[in-house]
Specification:
Blueprint: H1 3-19, E1 29-34, H2 61-68, E2 73-79, H3 85-95, E3 101-106, H4 115-123, E4 128-132, H5 141-144, H6 148-159, E5 163-166, H7 171-183, E6 188-191, H8 203-215, E7 222-226, H9 241-255, E8 260-262, H10 275-286, H11 291-306
Parallel strand pairs: 1-2, 2-3, 3-4, 4-5, 5-6, 6-7, 7-8
Helix pairs in contact: 7-8
């Protein structure tokens, strides 16, 4: 090629490159709800049941990493899957060996006399970001939230700048969260899996639930996980986001873009669909809202709710 032609070609190429659209970086994802357990341990596990062929196998960071990282996930928050006290330590020990875990939410009973000591013990580890309490392990938040010992424990939790997760949602639990945040207004609460709640069929109960739900609009310390979105209908699980849009619109309308969190519920979610299918539905819902709103859902809001620990350069800051 002659020098003049070469220079012309180079100039044209440079001009085209200058006007080509820049590659938009993918939105990073922090999965705010996974479970870790290992049924092969000598002591076994309290959950899942050994008769569950989908879940009854080790769910550990290496397996999660192999599934999630190729999809753009760079970190995850582990949520308790056991009421055994020492399983709080087991999870922290497992998390210490894999930087994909940016936080854990453990299981402690705020009513217990030992709660202050237990909270101090586990909070020494910066990965310990809160506790979960709800309708699991024979407990009932709707009946127990008003007990003086429970509220005293939650005040300690709030003073430690830790969060309270609640599960599994039903209308009495929703009302209990409202009432306990009246009593302890400075505590951060994360309501897990709210899309899975079926509103009451009876008109008065349904109206009461929707009234309580709307009240969360003014409570900036209460977050919600848009998790357990998929549903089984007539033997099939719809993969079209349009099927779920009305319910997601309702929750996002109440909580706003600053208080919704992504959580996969892995590996429990495997009972409904594979990880990529579950993620595809919420991506299809949040991506059209624009990058700022999608970033809030996929990672920024989890940082506000949990104050998780960045452990890897790939994780957003």
């Amino acid at each position: 090629m002659r020098r003049r032609n070469f220079l012309q070609a180079t100039a044209v190429g440079a001009l085209a490159s200058a006007h080509a659209p820049a590659q938009t970086p993918a939105i990073p994802i922090i999965d705010a709800h996974i479970h870790l357990f290992d049924p092969t341990r000598p002591q076994g596990v309290p959950w899942p049941d050994k008769n569950n062929p989908v879940l009854y196998k080790p769910a550990l960071p290496a397996r999660y990493r192999s599934i999630a990282v190729p999809l753009g996930v760079s970190g995850a928050i582990e949520i308790e899957a056991s009421p055994w006290l020492e399983d709080n330590q087991w999870v922290l020990d497992v998390a210490a060996h894999d930087t994909i875990i940016v936080g854990t939410v453990g299981d402690l009973d705020p009513r217990a006399p030992e709660f202050p000591h237990q909270l101090e013990r586990f909070h020494r580890n910066p990965l310990f970001r809160g506790i979960r309490y709800g309708n699991l392990w024979g407990r009932n938040l709707a009946h127990e939230w008003s007990q003086p010992a429970f509220l005293s424990g939650l005040r300690l939790l709030a003073e430690a700048d830790l969060s309270l997760d609640t599960a599994n949602p039903d209308p009495p639990l929703v009302e209990a969260v409202l009432r306990l945040t009246d009593k302890v207004p400075h505590i951060r609460v994360v309501i897990d899996h709210l899309p899975s709640l079926n509103p009451p069929a009876e008109a008065p109960a349904r109206a009461a639930y929707q009234r309580n739900l709307r009240e969360f609009a003014g409570r900036s310390q209460v977050y919600v996980k848009i998790s357990q979105v998929l549903r089984r209908v007539d033997g099939r699980i719809p993969a079209d986001v349009g099927f779920y849009r009305a319910r997601l619109d309702e929750l996002c309308g109440v909580f706003g873009e600053d208080r919704v969190l992504y959580g996969s519920d892995w590996p429990n979610s495997d009972q409904m669909a594979a990880y990529p299918e579950e993620l595809a539905v919420v991506r299809a819902y949040f991506t059209p809202k624009g990058r700022p709103a999608a970033e809030k859902y996929f990672w920024r809001n989890s940082l506000a709710a949990y104050r998780w620990v960045r452990r890897d350069p790939a994780q957003p800051a």
